[in-house]
Amino acid sequence: MKKPARSPKISDTSGIRNLVVVLGDQLSCELETFRSFDPKQDAVWMAESVIEAEYVWSHKQRIALFLSAMRHFRKELESRGIRVFYTELEKNQDPKGLDELLEHFLKSKNVTGSVLMTEPGEWRLKKAFKDLATNITTPLKMLEDSSFLCSRDDFENWAEGRKQLRMAYFYREMRKRTGILMDGDTPAGGEWNYDSSNRASFGKRGPETVPPPVRFRSDSITREVIELVEHRFADHPGRLDTFAWPVASQDAKCALEDFLKKGLADFGKYQDAMWTGEPFLNHSLLSPSLNLKLLSPREVIEAVEKEYREGRAPIESVEGFIRQVIGWREYVRGVYWRYMPDYADRNAMGASEALPDFYWTGQTSLNCLRQALDQTLEYGYAHHIQRLMVTGLFALLWGVDPKEVHRWYLSIYVDAVEWVELPNTLGMSQYADGGVMASKPYVSTGKYINRMSNYCKGCRFRPDVRTGEDACPITVLYWDYLDRHEKALAGNQRMGLQLRNLKRMGAEERSGLRARAQKTRQWILKESNN
């Protein structure tokens, strides 16, 4: 919707033609619901619901980000002369869901046209609003989320008839269809994927010149929200004194420009690296803004590609970043809607253990986990390798019920919306979908963490040891995982080398590994409960 000339604010008692519903992760006027919006006749409805903050035990910064961004978007809409009906949490003491709040609103207002809304990013919410549509007299029209580059139908057409939905093939199709990072019919630089060039560690000297990313001071709206969250959600995990996320579109654009200048050039090479006390490194920190729609994927991709075309960033970094946006991001959304709601119940490996308590406190002697968990609790953020190969890896090896892992990831990260979080957690991280997302479980010993970080230097365990008191728990549990799931993984060709290494062990050594794994589990449980 084009920005109209400012007009006098319409009275809340005036009639409403179309009512546009805006959810907390739909903060954009570029969505289809605004295409025919007329400020003189139409209005916007937004609401803050305590249920949305509490149905998972959300990190304080996650709650604060959503609420502050919503209130800033309301301010932007009102500055355009748009009438906004907005319910703040302070005035909403009843534990009602968004669908119930909307139903209550419609009983008190005369909407002569339709209720228009963009499809929610969670199956749970979509079902709630579809059920609501059968209980109200005003027509409720749910439009597809137009912020994505691949429509739901396009993904289904691509997936139809395929035995395996591999992201690499989807990514190539997206490049060809959109022309992004293409030179005619060939990929820019001559290769589709530069992942092999993007696995460098920092070495012994560590990251020498990584300028800190831009962080944003809290204005009066955000300060008010932080005070509210500290009071209303005092028992929730995380802290708020480090809150500095973009909460409005202009801040998000500033964050994008900052990444282009500071982080993009070295992003590719070091995107998998980790380092003590460095939570951000060369990462963009744009996923919260993208998932709230403060930024559009198209504007981010175009800006990043321009850096390559004008010689300011290498193809390895640009391709690696764009693959995350038009590859993984679009792909996981397609997987989510294709397989939900049954997808959330998948548990291919039969995992049933409880999530250790230290995931909520960071209090563990395992330095790699402590580093990833501490920064997660401090900022509500960890980059993809910390999520996949530290917190996710341990949960997979431990055998945590994938639903518990899912709830933790959805709770704890500021960029978590279910359409993107659930497939990445159940599929990519926990292999609970049996291979829909990943061709094999992402399991490794502590040697991987040692190679990609300096975490092991601050730990009393040795990553290359699998037996004895000095054995790294990650390494011990890795061999325990292979031993427990040997039959289930026997037909997976990509696990062949790892399983052959397991078979080379004699019966006595395997028995010793099982005993060490049992002792390791007992020690971790004791530590977690203290």
Q: Would you count the extended β strands for me?
A: 7
Query: What is the terminal separation in angstroms?
Result: 55 Å
CATH topology of the largest domain: DNA Cyclobutane Dipyrimidine Photolyase, subunit A, domain 3
CATH architecture classification name of the largest domain: Orthogonal Bundle
Number of helices: 22
**Lateral arrangement of strands in the main beta sheet:** 3-2-1-4-5
Using only C-alpha atoms, the radius of gyration works out to 24 Å
Largest sheet: 5 strands, parallel
The fourth-level CATH homologous superfamily of the largest domain is DNA Cyclobutane Dipyrimidine Photolyase, subunit A, domain 3
The percent range for helix content is 40-55%
Low-confidence stretches: 4-11
Task: Give a concise summary.
By secondary structure, the chain is mostly helical.
How is the topology of this model organized?
Blueprint: E1 19-21, E2 43-47, H1 50-54, H2 60-79, E3 84-87, H3 98-108, E4 115-118, H4 123-133, E5 140-143, H5 152-159, H6 167-178, E6 182-183, E7 186-187, H7 220-232, H8 249-262, H9 264-270, H10 287-292, H11 297-309, H12 315-339, H13 358-361, H14 367-379, H15 384-398, H16 402-412, H17 418-429, H18 446-452, H19 473-484, H20 486-489, H21 496-503, H22 507-529
Parallel strand pairs: 1-2, 1-4, 2-3, 4-5
Antiparallel strand pairs: 6-7
